[in-house]
Specification:
By secondary structure, the chain is mostly helical. The chain has helices at 12-22, 28-46, 51-62, 75-84, 97-100, 107-117, 131-140, and strands spanning 68-71, 93-96, 125-128, 144-147. Helix 1 packs across helix 2.
């Protein structure tokens, strides 16, 4: 909450550090670094992407469509996730809340995505799994949106 709405509010490092400091652990930042690495190691190991998403993205590329991942996650972790799931070959652009200086549903993140893609609102569709952040955010900014329940 202290770091919201900055992208750093999603930092597991800061979350573990805060928890460990509350527990009065000495050198909490060092332990927090180790726990964050463990967290992401296990997260990446367990994550899976649905076959439908891979097929959709593959077909989008075949049709010459431009794709952009718009995320509230920090860039380095999102890039690692895309690589792990082998989706990086299908995603042309990445826009993160830390880069935009605002989280979805704030229009700033959608505005940055449009700028990176050099497209207008009428030329894009937001596909998202959060009605509030993705769908309402895009629609309130004038972008058509499709809800995809993961």
């Amino acid at each position: 909450k202290r770091l919201h709405p900055q992208g750093s509010c999603r930092s597991r490092q800061f979350a573990f550090d805060g928890l460990l400091r509350e527990l009065k652990a000495p050198k909490a930042y060092l332990h927090a670094e180790r726990y964050e690495k463990l967290y992401w190691h296990n997260f990446y190991k367990e994550m899976k992407v649905s076959k439908d998403v891979k097929i959709f993205l593959r077909n989008a590329k075949k049709l010459g469509l431009i794709t952009c991942a718009v995320t509230d996650m920090q860039a380095n972790f999102q890039i690692a996730k895309l690589k792990k799931m082998k989706l990086d070959a299908h995603i042309d652009y990445l826009v993160t809340s830390e880069e935009a200086g605002a989280e979805k549903p704030n229009p700033a993140i959608f505005k940055l995505a449009l700028k990176k893609m050099s497209l207008s609102k009428k030329m894009v569709v937001m596909i998202g799994d959060s009605k509030i952040k993705d769908i309402n955010g895009a629609e309130s900014f004038g972008i058509k949106a499709i809800y995809f329940k993961a």
